[in-house]
Automatic annotation (TrEMBL):
<keyword id="KW-0479">Metal-binding</keyword>
<feature type="binding site">
    <location>
        <position position="157"/>
    </location>
    <ligand>
        <name>[4Fe-4S] cluster</name>
    </ligand>
</feature>
<dbReference type="InterPro" id="IPR056740">
    <property type="entry name" value="ILV_EDD_C"/>
</dbReference>
<dbReference type="InterPro" id="IPR037237">
    <property type="entry name" value="IlvD/EDD_N"/>
</dbReference>
<feature type="domain" description="Dihydroxy-acid/6-phosphogluconate dehydratase C-terminal">
    <location>
        <begin position="410"/>
        <end position="602"/>
    </location>
</feature>
<dbReference type="InterPro" id="IPR000581">
    <property type="entry name" value="ILV_EDD_N"/>
</dbReference>
<keyword id="KW-0411">Iron-sulfur</keyword>
<keyword id="KW-0456">Lyase</keyword>
<dbReference type="InterPro" id="IPR004786">
    <property type="entry name" value="6-phosphgluc_deHydtase"/>
</dbReference>
<dbReference type="InterPro" id="IPR020558">
    <property type="entry name" value="DiOHA_6PGluconate_deHydtase_CS"/>
</dbReference>
<feature type="domain" description="Dihydroxy-acid/6-phosphogluconate dehydratase N-terminal">
    <location>
        <begin position="69"/>
        <end position="382"/>
    </location>
</feature>
<keyword id="KW-0311">Gluconate utilization</keyword>
<dbReference type="Pfam" id="PF00920">
    <property type="entry name" value="ILVD_EDD_N"/>
</dbReference>
<keyword id="KW-0004">4Fe-4S</keyword>
<comment type="pathway">
    <text>Carbohydrate metabolism; Entner-Doudoroff pathway.</text>
</comment>
<dbReference type="InterPro" id="IPR042096">
    <property type="entry name" value="Dihydro-acid_dehy_C"/>
</dbReference>
<protein>
    <recommendedName>
        <fullName>Phosphogluconate dehydratase</fullName>
        <ecNumber>4.2.1.12</ecNumber>
    </recommendedName>
</protein>
Length: 605
């Protein structure tokens, strides 16, 4: 184990001791209550009858007997999200696997699953981050019937997996296995998609050409194939031990995908307190697991959204993870992957090159992961250096991951990384704290110093671009986009115009208290600025023409104005009423009032 990994882990353990002990005490109390009255025996007869009234005769007999485990299914299925459409079939596969094991399975409840790709740049995006906490609440409601001995969780995309994890941790005494559905097959290459988006931003191709490009990119069932938050979620669930080994990136609708789904159900049933391998999720996700998650994030160049989500997930387990931990781990974790937007390949190419098994083995051998961390597979993280395949009888057989990368331009070993760090940096300075992802940004653009142009929405910037007012070096300061202001939307529609200006030779950068996710791309972007503008953070004091310095190597975010003048400035204000009503936003006033800062996970809990 590298010294830095051990030091940061021990620091998190010390910092979290009180909260973690209280959490584990609650977990133990819930487990003891369940042990005194296992299964559904602790419920009244009317309660039990309600719980399985709609079941078939065979399942009903097992449930009434109360001696066999019952598996809860929490699903994010809908058929609008390509990533979640395959889940329509999963409950029946899981029920069949449970019956084969002499047990039962029921859909405990559904959770909402919105698509950021659909809401991008629209009013609905202002509900996106809050949907994570709604999903956590919905998960708790689903499991509140207390008729389950373990649960499986069907979710893929941006806020859905973190929300499911937070909800599952509130029932931390239950074993939990997360079941992915896999990425769609490769469509239009990512670089071509980005090229056409930029041409459209310049007015050089029409809407029909743009729509055709997008439809060829997002063309079928499965997760979008670029390495954004959704696929980063899948990497995290595997490196943190909640998936089966090698399960993350197997395409949907294949025999191997179905076999993995059924095996995940069997594995969840094997982990219940009814057997000899009791493994509750609240003990799997300990400090080691979260360090492993942060290491995986850095090594793969994953989504910046996880500087929010991992912090919030850890808090749900009584663990105090901070941005300083991310920053310190980043200094020793090399970048081993080049997947769009950090490269031109997609996740199918990553999987074919060696995938998660290769990646985890390289990180373990380099002393960068806790190999002794608990997993749902029960053999420590070294078991995740294997990849699954179909056996002759149609079952599963695991083999060692590839000894060498099948595509060194996509995936490399720790001895020859793409760069010595993963490229996620913490910035601090006059405007507050922020994060920046530099792995997709050319080194000569890691430092940008230029006059500020201040905007209070991404639409304002787009109008200025179309009017030809941005043909110069500048730092776009897009503020009042934080969680308290308007739910902290992703601001992806900023990237095409800023990318065009950068390609024209101008030095440009973005500073915002909003989000950019895993697809921030080639323009340097200091995001998640906290305190946010609505809280009177430094970003609210910036004025047009101020010289702003974004310095990723030095970890600085500075406004180069006279100190006395800076201190005397009154923070700007903005009329946010347009973001507080319509498209359901009026229902989230309580969330905006209660939400914490970005560096604490931007959670309402």
């Amino acid at each position: 184990m590298r010294d830095r990994i051990a030091e940061v882990t021990e620091r998190i353990v010390r910092r979290s001791r009180g909260g973690r002990e209280r959490y584990l005490d609650r977990l133990s109390e819930a487990a003891e209550r369940a042990a005194r009255a296992p299964g559904r025996a602790r419920l009244g007869c009317a309660n039990q009858a309600h719980a399985f009234a709609a079941c078939g005769a065979g399942d009903k007999a097992l449930l009434a007997g109360g001696r066999t485990p019952n598996l809860g299914i929490v699903t994010a299925y809908n058929d609008m999200l390509s990533a979640h459409q395959p889940y329509e079939r999963f409950p029946e596969l899981i029920r069949a696997a449970a019956r084969e094991a002499g047990a039962t399975a029921q859909v405990a409840g559904g959770v909402p699953a919105m698509c950021d790709g659909v809401t991008q740049g629209e009013a609905g995006m202002e509900l996106s981050l809050f949907s994570r906490d709604v999903i956590a609440l919905s998960t708790a409601v689903a499991l509140s019937h207390q008729t389950f001995d373990a649960a499986v969780f069907l979710g893929i995309c941006d806020k859905i997996v973190p929300g499911l994890v937070i909800g599952a941790l509130s029932f931390g005494h239950l074993p939990a296995v997360f079941i992915p559905a896999g990425p769609m097959t490769s469509g239009l290459p990512n670089d071509e998609k980005a090229r056409i988006r930029q041409l459209h931003a310049e007015g050089k191709v029409d809407r029909a050409a743009l729509l055709d490009s997008e439809m060829r990119s997002y063309h079928g069932p499965g997760t979008c194939t670029f390495y954004g938050t959704a696929n980063t979620n899948q990497m995290l669930m595997e490196v943190m031990g909640l998936h089966l080994p090698g399960a993350s990136f197997v395409n949907p609708g294949t025999p191997l995908r179905d076999a993995l789904t059924k095996e995940a159900a069997r594995r969840a049933l094997a982990l219940t307190a009814n057997g000899n391998e009791y493994t509750p999720i609240g003990r799997v996700l300990d400090e080691r697991a979260f360090v492993n998650g942060v290491v995986g994030l850095h090594a793969t160049g994953g989504s910046t959204n996880h500087t929010l989500h991992l912090v919030a997930m850890a808090r749900a387990a009584g663990i105090h993870l901070t941005w300083d931990d991310f920053a310190d781990l980043a200094e020793v974790v090399p970048l081993l992957c080049r997947v769009y937007p950090n490269g031109q390949a997609d996740v199918n190419h990553f999987h074919a090159a060696g995938g998660m098994g290769f990646l985890i083995r390289e990180l373990l051998d380099a002393g960068l992961l806790h190999g002794d961390a608990a997993t749902v597979w029960g053999e420590g993280l070294r078991a995740y250096t294997a990849e699954p395949g179909l056996a002759a009888d149609g079952g599963l057989a695991w083999r060692d991951a590839a000894a060498e990368s099948g595509a060194p331009a996509v995936l490399r070993g720790a001895a020859e990384p793409f760069q010595p760090t993963g490229g996620l940096r913490l910035l601090e300075g006059d405007m507050g704290r922020a994060v920046i992802k530099t792995s997709a940004v050319k080194p000569e653009r890691h430092v940008v110093e230029a006059p500020a142009i201040v905007f209070h929405s991404q639409e304002e910037l787009q109008r200025a671009f179309k009017a030809g007012e941005l043909e110069r070096d500048f730092v776009a300061v897009v503020r009042f986009q934080g969680p308290k202001a308007n739910g902290m939307p992703e601001l992806h529609k900023l990237m095409p115009p800023l990318g065009v200006l950068q390609d024209r030779g101008f030095r440009v950068a973005l500073v915002t208290d909003g989000r950019m996710s895993g697809a921030s791309g080639k323009v340097p972007a200091a995001i998640h600025v906290t305190p946010e503008a609505l809280d009177g953070g430094g970003i609210a004091r910036v004025r047009d023409g101020d010289t702003v310095r974004v310095d990723a190597p030095a970890g600085r975010l500075e406004v180069l104005v006279d100190r006395a003048e800076w201190d005397s400035r009154v923070p700007a204000e903005a009329d946010l009423s347009a973001s507080h009503a319509g498209v359901g936003r009026e229902l989230f006033a309580a969330f905006r009032a209660a939400v914490g800062g970005a560096d604490t996970g931007a959670a309402v809990f």
